[in-house]
Predict the structure.
Amino acid sequence: MKVESTNGMFTGASKYVLDEELAKIVNISMALEMPLLLKGEPGTGKTMLAHAIAEALNMRLIVLNVKSSMKLVEALYQYDTLTRLNDSRFGDSSRDVSNIEEYIKMGKIGQAFVADERVVLLIDEIDKADTDFQDDMLDVLDQMEFDIIEIDKTIRAKHRPVIIITSNAKKDLSDPFLGRCNFHHIAFPEPDMMRKIVSVHFPDISKELLENSVKAFYRMREFRGVEKKPATRELINWIRALESDPDFKVKDLVKGDIPYLGVLFKKSPDYAIARGTVSRMRI
Amino acid sequence: MFTNFFYLLKQVGIPVSPTSFLRLQKALQLGLITSIDDFYTAARSILVKSERYFDLYDQVFAHHFEGAELEEPDEFELSRVAQALLDEWLKNPKELAEALGVDEKSLSKLSPEELLQYFLDRLKEQTGEHHGGSKWIGTGGTSPVGHSGYHPGGMRVGGVSRNKSAVKVAMDRRYRDYSQEGPLTQAQIGEALKRLRNMIPVGPKDQVNIDETIYHTMKNAGEIEIIFDRSLKDRLKVILAIDNGGWSMDPYVELVQTLFNHARAQFKELRTFFFHNTIYDNLWEDPARYRKPFKVDDLARLDPETRFIIVGDASMAPYELMATDGSIHIEERTYKPSHERLRFIAATFPFAIWLNPKMEQEWPYTRTIGMIREIFPMFELTIDGLEKAVNYMMGKNHLN
């Protein structure tokens, strides 16, 4: 798939396979200037989407990785008191100590606001933060401005960024939050889609390997009792492992002989279950 | 435009807000939507905010725009409707019996399974007779008792009742979306458990304390002295011991596990053990209480700061607690009576508590509850109880 950017509409990127539905939703959200909230199990490409949009529309991507202890103000700006103190003592820097503004550093959201061109702002794993953070953040994103208390200045967004918010499917976010976003749930890709995704990452992959690895992959996702099912990322790494092994033959997969299970199952109980199931399958 | 569609969505129980509907209008005005396919995706992403409602949305959409008949309720949905009916019946047996045209007494004689089956059969008949298999969402409903029976968001948990009948337990076990709706909702639990977070300063000293720094710098006549604080680090370990034996505990096992797994991110470590009725020589790491025993004596090696939370109804025959060989499992031979084991745990972990799904006013009627309360502080397994439990565990900490 090639990089396309026609009329500022998002149609896909070099390493991202986009389904049409999602493309529409992205475009609508951009036109309505609403944040887009993406949910879905890990490995469905929530985060990758933001990268793909940035690439396709030729915009800079700013990523805010949300942490559980994060305060909203950290995402907006930081006042570097220590440097100022240091400068006031030694006075050998080019900064003007009496001007607090020189010691204000923009956080990720702040950077997105003051950027000279339109950027993509990815707010990753919003569900980690507490509800207050979420609601307050949406206020800021709604008004497209925030105040810096220390210098009594309001920062207004020069260009409304394209905002993508991701959340893991476990928790539902608060109603006011949901009310201000567009929503999409990315389902786990169907085998057909998965084949496309794999082909994008491995343009030279043999048809035989593609078919059989994807087939084996979906069979392994069905293993009972596995806590963390392998996702797209694992499949791609697994195929990479298979391809780099000179002794590996696709026939083995057909026989049910599956090497490098550790690439797919990363928790030790899962790994044990997978090994057990695979060896039973072979018999 | 599409107002009917909007109301239909509302009617089937999808929480759609007027604001989002206006937003959809804006999207239409902007000319963003040019085809029915566009409309489908756009309306869904703007109006519907949870994947739980996607299926319902699809049905309504097909019904409204394609003129498709809303799907016949299949087995799965029927049994959900039947569940809800059961629920109704439990609340008001007489009314439902009348509505179904059956004698209340003959209904009460049926076993839970028979009852469900009976409802299912009745429902299928009714669908045929009354509606000829057409729309089933909306005002009509599928049965004479109809509308109230339909819960698109998943099953409700049938409340905690003092007289826990077998029918009720049978219902509990069939809940499909336990984690989504329950007596303790996710939001509440999160709130209560957030307080479990024990912020003891144990991290590295890497946070600058501005006020102190300025103060000390002033004292040094302007010579900068930077004062660091320890950053706060969450180091709370939690052990959960769940009584998963017997019907009396069944509905709560999953609930409690869901609850703590949701909060897992807040803990440094969360271990779950299982036992039946009370604790003897071993706890088990597997729910079947068979493969992975964990010696109670070994608990002494764990961090005593660990919050040890026991979940159980604490109801058993007194000898199970007091006798040297009290276990009701023949294969479990023990050398110390259970109450000694419990005392040992309480002594090892100063932050041990007991959560009881039985309501507090019932406690005086069970002897073993009283005995266990002498060993552990006991709290109800409700939001209130949980909050008290957390406060208790935190309060003690302040004394240190």
